[in-house]
Amino acid sequence: MSFEQYLQKQKLASSTIQGHLADIKRFKNWCITEGVNHNQANYNHLLKFIDQFRKREITATTINLHLNSISKYYNYQIQQERRKACGERSRTNNPARDLRVKKDGSKVLRDLLSTAQLDQIYQQYSNKPTWSFREEKQKQTHRRNTVILGLLIYQGLQTGELKKLEAHHINLKTGTIYIPTGSRGNSRTLKLQASQILAIQQYIQQRDQFFPAKRADMLFIGNMHSIIRWLIGELRSSNELVKSAFQIRSSVIVNWLSRHNLRQVQYMAGHRHIGSTERYKQEDLGDLQRQLELFHPLGNEAH
């Protein structure tokens, strides 16, 4: 099956398909000029490809259209088992998937929080006095949100990962949590902080009262995106440093990189590719910001 046939199966308009084909032809020609095998182009190659457009003052919208075409092309290559990484077959190696040029010129990672600041945010939220909650349901909701906040701040979990957690994934005896494989991340087992243990224990003990018995296997019930939005809104109302869940996860990963080696952080963050972790290296961020102003949606990390 050709790339054109692949696009036709997606029921795209003829003009859209021709646009994608033209973009890929342009990308292949650039790869030939640069001596790059287009089937093995990586994240850094794409940065160079984008940079040529920026030097010509091409708009961010146009550049993103090119990136979208490349992303579709690599999805096609992966489906056809033609896309390779490091000499081995890979079904997830699409460096263009989450790569877009930021239209407002904001920096790659903004408003990063230190480990101490993150810890303070957790302590302030978790230590809210019980008398501030008028109803038992409010107390239960706060216990749940305290557990979720801890998993954001200390384990750097993403929304999709929180949604997949089950009670048996937490081992209070060993003080660990298992995060299952998700659509955008690998499975891993991480240590819990001492300050999380009691909150998790209390939450699990009262979980059967808070959630319907038929869903007792799930750690959290409800629309996790809505829960996170509500939680971030609560945090922002009392702490102006808090901006978003993406900011928290980015801060966690950057802080990890200051204490652990790249491979360790790749595992802890659940990144499938080391390149996803490298994007958070502080020594690379300044150079990257000078070249391009990029953003990487949390969506469901991140890689």
Structure characterization notes:
The structure is a single chain. By secondary structure, this protein is mainly α. The protein has two domains: 3-101, DNA polymerase, domain 1, CATH 1.10.150; 115-248, Intergrase catalytic core (hpI Integrase, Chain A, Orthogonal Bundle), CATH 1.10.443. It has helices spanning 3-9, 14-34, 43-55, 60-79, 115-126, 136-155, 159-164, 194-210, 224-238, 245-257, 262-269, 274-278, 282-291; strands at 84-85, 88-89, 100-101, 170-171, 176-179, 188-191, 294-295. It has a three-stranded antiparallel sheet. Helix 2 (14-34) crosses helix 4 (60-79), helix 5 runs antiparallel to helix 6 (136-155) and helix 6 packs across helix 8 (194-210). The model is unreliable at 85-92 and 283-303 (pLDDT under 50).
Looking at CATH, the homologous superfamily of the largest domain is Intergrase catalytic core
- Number of helical elements: 13
| Number of individual domains | 2
N- to C-terminal distance: 29 Å
Taking all Cα atoms into account, the compactness measure Rg is 22 Å
Class based on secondary structure composition and strand pairing: mainly alpha
Q: What is the annotated CATH architecture of the largest domain?
A: Orthogonal Bundle
Order of helices and strands: HHHHEEEHHHEEEHHHHHHE
Number of strands: 7
Mean pLDDT: 82
Assembly level? single chain
Shape: elongated
Q: So what's the CATH class of the largest domain?
A: Mainly Alpha
Record the strand order, biggest sheet: 4-5-6
Largest sheet: 3 strands, antiparallel
| CATH fold type of the largest domain | hpI Integrase, Chain A
Strand content range: 5-15%
List the uncertain runs.
85-92, 283-303
